[in-house]
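Weekly modeling sync, notes
Attendees: S.R. (lead), two postdocs, one rotation student

Agenda item 3: backlog of single-chain predictions. S.R. asked that every request posted to the team notebook include the full sequence so nobody has to chase files. The rotation student volunteered to paste the first one in as an example of the format we agreed on. Action items at the bottom.

Example entry:
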Amino acid sequence: MVYLSKGVKRVENEKDLIIQSISGDIHSFEVLIKGYQKMAYNVAYRIMGNEEDAKDMTQEALIKVYKNLSKFRMDSSFSTWLYRIVMNTCKDELRKKKLKVVSIDQPIETGEGQMHMDIEDTGLKPDEVVESRETQVEVHEALQEVSETNRVVVVLRDIKGFSYAEISEIIEVPVGTIKSRINRGRQELKNILMNKRKQSISLVRKEV
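Predicted structure, as returned to the notebook:
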């Protein structure tokens, strides 16, 4: 058994399981995805914001994984490919629900073509403030107010621990853009948390 850095278990004969799954072996597919299901659900939950949608999106994504296994390139990372499908499934559902999607990192036009902003990776990290269950709930609720584009990368980087390169593969955008979105997402999250806390303090004062 091989253990991945983000807590996902991968069996040593993963490629064999993929081949067997493509041939229609359901048991092999169940074994293949067993180590990824919890992680896939957790990612979906952070993006969708509730258990029901997260379960639906995880199930839908895994169905897509099974149907599209024949398109998977054996020289690629299966986990990255799977999580890309989970992320895209969640994003498609959010668009169906007509939630506002704000693009804040459009490339800048220069005389030599397009340039993406590469902002230094600084700012609030959710794992730095999660000290109690109450704070975890607070952060989760605040995350739902962060714009979708930024929420996705903050979840992948700060909560799930993916590297910039892995995130770049999953959502298929340049690393520089990833860093920009993470920086902006952290700032959004920080502002939302600060405003919520100010509101809570204000309510307490009024009650007193």
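Discussion: group reviewed the output briefly. The two ends are 58 Å apart (CA to CA).
Action items: rotation student to repeat for the remaining queue; S.R. to check formatting next week.
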